């Protein structure tokens, strides 16, 4: 009699599955015959579907399937397919994802997704990864002609050679040798080409002010530093020298910059110092390029990374320094789930790697500065500009200027200063934070503005395409012949103006002057951004005009005048942060003038010169603005005095929105204020309502929201949670 063969044990694998429904945010158990490491993707049957998931844990058992069934109360299914041999999410990032989901009240899977380049995201439908052909030697013995031998030896020397390179060198021979089985052809994923920069720049000798700041950071043992230095005080140089120190110790460096500040200028500056160990990660890259840069970090080929928000999740293994430049910038906050702020993430990663985090800004966020004053962050200040010059700021009261019959776009004061600069061959930057030609069209009969049918928001007229455009959803349409609201055919009056109109005004006032325009309309194509800046740098145009894109991080020594049009327009928004955002923009834009060795001039055109935001900008006084704004926040009980959680319910069906909001309202109770239900403007065909929680105990607020949500069958797209929202719109 044969003994029954011993049953080999198996593995029970816990898997997070891809699913947007909140109540499914838990792991599910599956069987596997092989061990699967945490953070690997697997494909699993779920209901009638086949879903991708991430392995959470894997335990060995010698139970039979039957025993397992009895233990669980139902039979477990087998994993259908293991997608990755090596984990995509390492242990640090795994723990970070779980932490982040609690912080942002999102789902585990959405956090994993946020961390990965789209090519390897679980929801990505096995997107195409670009492969390349390579050849290596086979073991076959073959007879070779002398020419073939040359190619053969070349491959032997190099181990493996890209097929295309070999074809260039040896024409048809590689093909023949593949046919002969002397070479083996194989495919590999394409890797990033190293960033090459011929210019090697030596570091500057630091000025006293920079040196002091640098030493305050290196000689102390704090975790988070807030480097507050006026624009042009040499902060970037301090970052680069700190980075150099860190690389010398064999550690990695992450430098985060805001979306629009990752200019070619910045990349050039960093790459000229750190040649080949550099990776660049930003949203301008396509999926394949992002994946290649991600691999550079994962395979430890990149030692220093410059990137925007999502670079915060790159799989570093030995971080020695994290810099977050312009830490106040709104692009650090993600506005889809999970609504994380990169600042919170870098601080958390800094803790894990025991590395210093430097938050830098000329206009720190109120939250960060308040923390620095309470010694939660170590405050380091640089008060002088490198060139010891300061911007000379002139305010123009537009109400008065227009009463005197001046142009409502360019006042006489600004016009005269422009003339003077142009005469001495200097360059000018003009900022107007609104694009398009006219911002609105109003019906002459009923006075209604033309709104986007999908968003309820006023549409802007763009003359270059002869159409109206919605800046929220991108919908375009021709100007209607009759008013969509009242049906009158009386026509429309125009209202407000944007960069396109500004450009025309400049051409009319200064015939022959060359301008470059930079806004969302002129930069939609890849690298358009870089081309415009390069052209301005090469002085191919006297004037660069554009939206807030041109306010940040640019360093053009020949610019001696900055004109800001409608400088206080941003104050009309009802958002509690509108003063802060306007102050940042005015200060940053002013900082573009006079960066070499002349005092720069700045002209700010406003309708209310007495407003404290405008006054503090004129005095270039951050502290004064801070004190004033904090009083306002305290009076209104806004952050940083309180915490907010915004819950936005949205759907294409109004009744679904009504119903869900009411349900949430009924259940949300605790030691905090519940403000709502507020109906928001329709956006991209979605009806939206918001409930706002305001209170002093964020943990309690989170707990309450979490309790209410666990029971809902809603997905994370219908109920969007934003903890510590930056804007409320
Ligand atoms: P910030 O980042 O504070 O706006 P930057 O680091 O861009 O300031 O410096 C402003 C300008 O001064 C840049 O053109 C930079 O090259 C130059 N610069 C910075 N540090 C020094 C230094 N120590 N010596 C000479 N030039 C410097
Ligand atoms: Zn009308
Ligand atoms: Zn729209």
Q: Which small molecules are bound? A: adenosine-5'-diphosphate, zinc ion
**Radius of gyration of CA atoms, rounded to a whole number:** 30 Å
The strand line-up of the biggest sheet is: 11-12-10-13-14-9-15
Q: Approximately what portion of the residues adopt beta-strand conformation?
A: 15-25%
The helix tally amounts to: 21
Mean pLDDT: 89
Distance between the termini: 78 Å
Structural category is alpha/beta
Task: Produce a short descriptive summary.
The protein is of the alpha/beta class and 729 residues long.
Mind explaining what this structure looks like?
The strands form 7 sheets. The protein has a 7-stranded parallel sheet with strand order 11-12-10-13-14-9-15, with helices on both faces. The radius of gyration is 30 Å and the shape is globular. Helices cover 31% and strands 23% of the residues. It is of the alpha/beta class. β19 (460-462) and β20 (467-469) form a beta hairpin. Bound molecules: adenosine-5'-diphosphate (ADP) and zinc ion (2 copies). Adenosine-5'-diphosphate binds at residues 204-207, 210, 229, 231-237, 386, 555, 595.
